[in-house]
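Dear Dr. H.,

I hope your travels went smoothly. While you were away I took the liberty of generating a structure for the chain from your last submission, since the lab meeting agenda had it listed for discussion. I wanted you to have the full record in hand beforehand rather than looking at slides cold. The sequence, exactly as received, is reproduced here:
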Amino acid sequence: MERAAGYANLIFGTNGNWSFSPYARRKHQRHLAPLPEAIVISAVQQKHTTPTDDDEGVPKVRTTMEAEKQEEFNLQKEFEWVLREEVHQLLKKLKFILIECAHRFPVPLYENEGKKTEKFILSVQPPDQLKAILTLTGDTITQADISFKLSKSPHQIQRTSITQDSPWKLQQVQDAANHLQQAINHIDDVDESYHFKTSDEVMHVVGNILEALQRGRLSLVIPKKKPIDELIKGRNMKSLTPNLSEDLAVSFYLQSHKLIIAVYQLTNIHGTMRFDSCQAEASINWLNEVLFMLSAGLQLCQQLKDKISVFSLYKDFKVGSRASSALSY
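The corresponding predicted structure, in token form, is as follows:
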């Protein structure tokens, strides 16, 4: 056995001779047990998911989260400023515009005495086809001389008039004035010291103002259409002296900045009722100014509504929703 152990210590050298190796006497090293599979997988995952640091050694994930929090902080801060300051500023500016608009109306409205009197001549070419010389006091035609030539037989010129005893009411003016008054009332209902807390509060107020102004503007821009038989039997037709025949109708209405007179003639052609018409118009300065100011008010409302709509996307936003330290600015 000793001889066998001695032979085990011999190695065959490069020179072809046998020799003893100093390393041959070292004991064999014991192999380590393999790592559990779960530990290996965890280490690999950590290697691939651990964020790299930036130049200052701050993990990128933490930097991104801090940036998002700062952005949300700034947005909340702006939101509170809009609710506390800008909404009231815009409402104040809007009220100034609407009061100026109210002062242009020829009817009593928001400390405006109204009852402005103007004279107009409405005619077409040739002038004998349709012509009206009238006096407009407030929202009422108090006097008018009307002449027109029928397109169907008989072709003679027809004449009629409006007198102060039976004036012609332009309901569109009063309707627009009422809607404008409602818009101003909605602004007056908001106390200057009131602090809005949510976007919904602002949207509710602005929505009411916007709807009132839209109704007021539409009252002047788009007149309500009436059937020919309703025009013939209408209350205003009784204001004409002398009365017209039952196949004729006269109508005064506003469309945008114009006062228009239209004459309709109803005819029966082979059992089918048709009507022919002609019209004349005149421009009214105060109507042009009123429509301009109503449009300016609508634009201001829409700007405020659009701005608040941006914050409305963040349902959690309301005054006091962030930390108290964020409120000290």
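Two observations you may find useful: The two ends are 94 Å apart (CA to CA). The first helix runs from residue 2 to 8.

With kind regards,
E. W.
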